[in-house]
Write a structure and sequence with these properties.
Layout (H helix, E strand, L loop, with lengths): L9 H13 L6 E7 L4 H12 L10 H6 L5 E2 L5 E2 L17 E7 L2
Antiparallel strand pairs: 1-4, 2-4, 3-4
């Protein structure tokens, strides 16, 4: 949950996740979210953060986050902004955020 962005190389992050998912029994679920490069202001803010003396965080595209669910049964509504993943009925239109999430079931 929001930690794979600390791995700079996206393919390496996916390999780590795959190793963990492979060890899980059938019927287990992967819940994953990460910050996304869906707005220029988010990318700018993240670049400023990464330029400071902190552990860098690398935002991904929604498509890159969706790749984490390859081989899994992606639950509805799929990979969407976190505020859009099964929002409370009657709560109004959820605000968009620069973080996408999803839940996948291991067959």
């Amino acid at each position: 949950m929001g930690v794979m962005g600390h791995v700079a190389d996206h393919d390496e992050a996916l390999a780590i996740m795959r190793k963990l998912v492979d060890a899980l029994p059938s019927g287990s679920h992967l819940v994953h979210y990460d910050g996304t490069s869906t707005s220029e202001s988010m990318v700018d803010a993240q670049n400023r953060y990464n330029d400071s003396d902190t552990a860098a965080y690398h935002v991904r595209t929604p498509e890159q986050i969706e790749r984490a669910f390859d081989g899994l049964e992606l639950l509805e509504p799929g990979v969407v902004p976190c505020t859009h993943w099964r929002p409370e009925p009657g709560a109004g239109e959820p605000r968009p955020v620069d973080a996408y999430c999803g839940v996948g079931r291991k067959p």
